[in-house]
User: Fold this.
Amino acid sequence: MYRCCSFFGEIKVDDITPEMACEIYDFFEYLIIHKNVDVFFSASESDFDLFCEGMLFAIKERFSKIKIIKFADKNYKNTFEDLKYQHVITYQSTNYIKRCKDMARISDYVLLDSLCDSKIGFEIALVACFCKSNTKVYDLNLIMKRAAKLLSAN
Assistant:
């Protein structure tokens, strides 16, 4: 039985701080080690999507069992670079938000970047929560606040 995580956001790669990168890495590692997540879905469109993918490809060197699956839009043309994915699914639409919602529907865990566009994040979180009763939704903004609070306490 596969356990799946999807991630999406609109934050630009230049706005991802080293602290955020560490938290994202720790989050993915936690899911793999403690929650047995072995499939990650990506829309492969935003800077955040691509950043998370890059991090997962690095993590895959330690955890070879994980699979990274790309949900491409209907106009996507496969390239040699797609060989790094375990699968590329060509989606019937070019709409990024629709792809994200559908990925959230089939995920056990969802990582949202609500730092830039909370409306999109909120919309996807609602879909994830109401479509699959056990889906856990994580907000990068809240993860960062919690980490800052823990650091200040020490």
